[in-house]
Design brief:
Blueprint: H1 2-10, H2 12-46, H3 50-73, H4 92-106
Pfam families: COX16 (PF14138)
Biased composition (Basic and acidic residues): 80-100
Protein name: Cytochrome c oxidase assembly protein COX16 homolog, mitochondrial
Length: 107
């Protein structure tokens, strides 16, 4: 019997494989628990009264949309010209001034 135990102690599968397998399987269970704790904590932070949350979101969104509509209403969205950006080897300020010069003369 002791002879079999010594053979098992010298066996590489028993010596290295089983601890590695236990580490991988045990680690996956441990990580699952830790990630669950993380998501539970996030849920607790985000918790709001549903009635209050509905009121806050709708008022906030409608006000933001109205403001953006007022900003865009007076803009001329059809009168634009596409200006190519500079290439890496071109001087950016000089090239942009060159591109904008004909536009400024026209207005």
């Amino acid at each position: 019997m002791w002879n079999q135990v010594r053979k098992l102690q010298k066996n590489r599968t028993v010596k290295y494989g089983i601890p590695m397998l236990l580490l991988v399987v045990g680690g996956s269970f441990g990580l699952r628990e830790f990630t669950q704790i993380r998501y539970d904590a996030q849920k607790m932070k985000k918790k709001l009264d549903p009635a209050l949350e509905a009121r806050v979101n709708t008022k906030k969104q409608s006000a933001i949309l109205q403001d953006e509509y007022e900003k865009l209403k007076d803009l001329d969205l059809d009168g634009w010209k596409n200006i190519r950006g500079p290439r890496p080897w071109e001087d950016s300020k000089e090239y942009q001034e060159e591109q904008r010069a004909p536009l400024n003369k026209g207005t």
